[in-house]
Amino acid sequence: MSDAAAGFSLKLSSDLREMRDWVHTFAESVIRPAAAEWDEREQVPWPVLDEAAAIGLYSLDFFATQFFEESGLGIPVAYEELFWGDAGIGLSLTGSTLAAVSVVSNGTPEQVGEWLPQMFGEPGDVKLGAFCSSEPDAGSDVAAIRTRAVYDEVADEWLINGVKTWVTNGGIANVHVVVASVDPTLGSRGQASFIVPPGTPGLSMGQKFRKHGIRASHTAEVVLDGVRVPGRCLVGGKEKLDDRLARVREGGRGGEQAAMKTFEASRPSVAAMAVGVARAATEFATEYARTRSQFGRPIGQNQGVAFQLADMAAAVDAARLLTWRAAWMARAGEPFEHAEGSMSKLVAGETAVRVTEQAIQILGGNGYTREYPVERWHRDAKIFTIFEGTSEIQRMIIGRAVTGLDVR
Ligand SMILES: Cc1cc2nc3c(=O)[nH]c(=O)nc-3n(C[C@H](O)[C@H](O)[C@H](O)COP(=O)(O)OP(=O)(O)OC[C@H]3O[C@@H](n4cnc5c(N)ncnc54)[C@H](O)[C@@H]3O)c2cc1C
Questions:
Q1: Which of 267, 264, 160, 152 has its CA nearest to residue 222?
Q2: CB 384 less than 6 A from any atom of ligand 1
Q3: Is 239 a catalytic residue?
Q4: Average pLDDT, stretch 349-354?
């Protein structure tokens, strides 16, 4: 057998297939039936989180197992199924992982051990985490973050002041991870992440946003007014930060930006969410086209409809393959030299928007009503071209990688 053939397979392991089917059963029997209600209520679906926690799906153990799964496909496979169920509820079930990943990728083992359990809780006592990077004047431009963290050497505490916005689980999370500038003269290289423990005075929720889609996920401003956290809450620790800042001041490379590192690692996961929504819409529209008759035959028998379904099915599979490639590379430690993480997020996000719009068209008038889920999926899908780096920012990253130029 040649080298290329020996090491390559797209077949999921039996463990992954079993996990996928288990998550799918939960998505089909619990998430889907609850989706329309929580979209209307625009609230975190606590009963669904409780149910997921009771079976071990909403748990640190589940996400950690999938995160460290050897092929890298654990998280993409799980997320595709959850978001196939519903994107708003899916985001409520996975929102804590962004905060968790930011601690896992930059933090010490002690920080991982202390704070991650507090982001998920346990059955009967569900908890949430939130990752706070974006600010009113620092969205795509992460370097513009104004939230400031100042070290108080005597008390061994960090004093944090600023306003964060668009935070998933913001203000209702038990643990917030906040990106702040420790040296504004260094731009994004002068930033660090801080864990804000539960109940810390000075952290409060600002405006809660009423959104176009993913309405079962809570999004709000987070105000940090004189927040004091112990020195051990600096993600990665002071020594590592001081070393990094010293390297940057000497003109060397100072590692990656704290926020960017989190976003880069999470891009294939976000892509998988989009694939789940796109697949849901494709399946639904396909079934509809097989059963809805006009002019004496199923509408799917018209090439005009079947060709759309063909494009939709092919686009979903293409998006999934890019997602799996990026997830596998991330797990295997292969650098994203051609911006493969961004490619997966860009293609999957744009696919979700296009495919859900096509699904509405195929359902005709029914597609435009709240009696059918495709209008909700279309509203939900739009988020994937906006958060964790807009489509334009992904194109910028890919453009830089493919041209080698400083594309702006
Ligand atoms: C529902 C929701 C949940 C979110 N959850 C979180 C969260 O948990 N934590 C968090 O930190 N953030 C979160 N975000 C924030 C999200 O990541 C930002 O909204 C996103 O990064 C875009 O920033 P912005 O909204 O300020 O848009 P802007 O940066 O103002 O961009 C506006 C438009 O300009 C374009 N643009 C900007 N710069 C360029 C450029 N150089 N070239 C070409 N086009 C450009 C953008 O692509 C976009 O189309 C969330 C957002 C939403 C809506």
A1: 160
A2: no
A3: no
A4: 98
